Automatic annotation (TrEMBL):
It comes from the Bacteria. CDD domains: LolA_like. InterPro entries: TP_0789-like, UCP028205. This is Outer membrane lipoprotein-sorting protein. The keyword Lipoprotein applies. Keywords: Lipoprotein. It holds the Pfam family LolA_like. Residues 86-262 form the Uncharacterized protein TP-0789 domain. It comes from Vibrio gallaecicus. The lineage of its organism: Bacteria, Pseudomonadati, Pseudomonadota, Gammaproteobacteria, Vibrionales.
Length: 268
């Protein structure tokens, strides 16, 4: 006579055993696909180079198109001067903002208005205010401002409908003045070209989603535009076109808020 109770127990034991084996194999597979810290760091630095094409002091001419409910609302131009050690000067070039400047020295920020002789200290959060926040156009470097880790490899669907394999990376701010506390960044598996980024505030709330457009600059594959979808005000969208990036070094005086408050830099 068969002992059906024993048979059922044996069946349950086998099922549990197979499940544990498959789970163990799956964990081994996932571990083998994981990327080490050095590889992730190199990947983030490479993604940065697609945006700036240079690690030297640079001038970035940015054209910002502001859309509301699908209609072009405003266009603004900014000339952004960057140099190593997280120093940037943003010169507002559009007529309605003429004379305004933003200076960023590590975690310190100043807004300089044309009719004021006094630099206005602002906070990292204030830097993000406005339709086209300076934090989004100042070409901050992920490799300098964030610590990255690998999350997973996945198939990512582009706005065009095309799919490609991408690494998802988690970037956590390592400076007080970073524009966003955390960033989920997707880069292509084959070249580490930046594809998409979800940008989170310190509260943990997603603020914007960025999509990067590839083109050619100076005969090199480059990010030529970035589309920002506002997740707080979904009817708003910003498209930033990087019209020109060139190596250009400003004198030290231009990174001094006292000098900027007393002198016009309209020629920059």
């Amino acid at each position: 006579m068969y002992n059906f109770k024993e048979i059922r127990c044996s069946q349950r034991f086998l099922i549990r055993s197979f499940f544990i084996v498959f789970l163990f194999i799956g964990n081994i597979a996932n571990a083998s696909q994981s990327l080490d810290q050095q590889t992730v760091t190199e990947m983030i630095a490479k993604a940065d180079r697609y945006r700036l094409n240079s690690e030297a002091a640079s001038k970035v001419i940015s054209l910002v198109n502001l859309y509301e409910s699908g209609q072009l609302d405003k266009t603004r131009q900014y000339n952004v001067y960057t140099r190593p050690n997280r120093e940037s000067l943003v010169v507002f070039k559009s007529a309605v903002e003429a004379g305004q400047k933003m200076l960023m020295i590590e975690d310190n920020y100043w807004l300089l208005m044309p009719k004021s002789r006094r630099p206005i200290r602002i906070t990292p959060m204030q830097k993000l205010l406005g339709e086209a926040s300076v934090g989004d156009i100042s070409t901050l470097t992920w490799s300098e401002d964030y610590q990255g880790s690998w999350v997973k490899q996945q198939s990512l669907t582009l706005p065009s409908g095309e799919s490609l394999q991408a690494h998802q990376l988690k970037l956590i701010s390592k400076t007080k003045g970073a524009s966003y506390q955390t960033i989920d960044l997707w880069v292509s598996v084959d070249r580490a070209f930046p594809i998409k980024a979800d940008l989170y505030l310190r509260s943990g709330k997603i603020a914007k989603q960025a999509w990067f457009e590839e083109g050619v600059r100076n005969e090199l594959p480059s990010v030529v535009a970035m589309t920002l979808l506002d997740k707080i005000q979904p009817n708003k969208k910003t498209v930033i076109e990087y019209l020109e990036i060139s190596e250009q070094k400003l004198e030290d005086k231009f990174y001094n808020p006292a000098y900027l408050s007393r002198n016009s830099v309209s020629g920059l």
